[in-house]
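Review form for a predicted model. The reviewer records the input and the model, then writes brief findings.
Reviewer: anonymous (R2)
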Amino acid sequence: MAWSYDGSGVHEIYDTARRLSTEARELFSLAIAEHLGPGPIGRVLDLGCGTGRFSRLLRDVLSTSVCALDASADMIGAAARQPDRRRIRFVRGHAEALPLGTATMGAAFTAMVYHHIADKDAALGECARVLRPAGRLLIYTPTREALHSFLWMRFFPTAVRIDTERMPSRPQLVETVCRASFDLERHVILERRFAEDLDEYARRIGMRSFSTLRMVSDAEFESGMAELRRYCAESRRGQTIAEELDLFVFRRQPRAAA
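Model under review:
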């Protein structure tokens, strides 16, 4: 089931609705440093960069330049207007046909994007092409096995059906990526704090920044939000909201000798 960010207006509210907390930034910074550092790595591809929230993190943690690419004109436009663009090049392009030279990237990172890619074999083949020998590909994504940890999904039955269909299972993702000349190095499950409390959680979900919630009907969204707000108001105050997401670390296989 396809959906486009362009024309949706999500780029205008994305940074507020999907803001990384200090704790989340520290979590991702440690993960990036562990799997891509230490030492010089060369330029990094942020594939499906959105408004650039991870582009700046990659640059700062790895002390390197970043090529931030997204297929959405609205999202890449919002990213390019961010005040802190040092050492980040924003490019509009598609994962299935990367406008980059062969073996020009030291690593590739993609966050919350895998399920949006229509032709995964083509996109992964392109990642293998642009990566240098032994370059790493980090995929940060929801999987079917982790959907139970998303509180908001309990209130939107259609959203559950949509994401059960379009999110990969863990074995399925590994099999697909390894077909494209990659080997799995590590898989970890990260517990991300999405909101400080239930009030903030309801506000951020209500901004409808998740593509899944844009794909349900307006009537179901309003009904589900009413139930979610009621649940949040009646539940224990001060409760933090954490969600499970998967981080897969792959290494590009050596290129065959010509």
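Findings: The radius of gyration is 18 Å.
Further findings: Residues 218-234 form the longest helix (17 residues).
Recommendation: see findings above.
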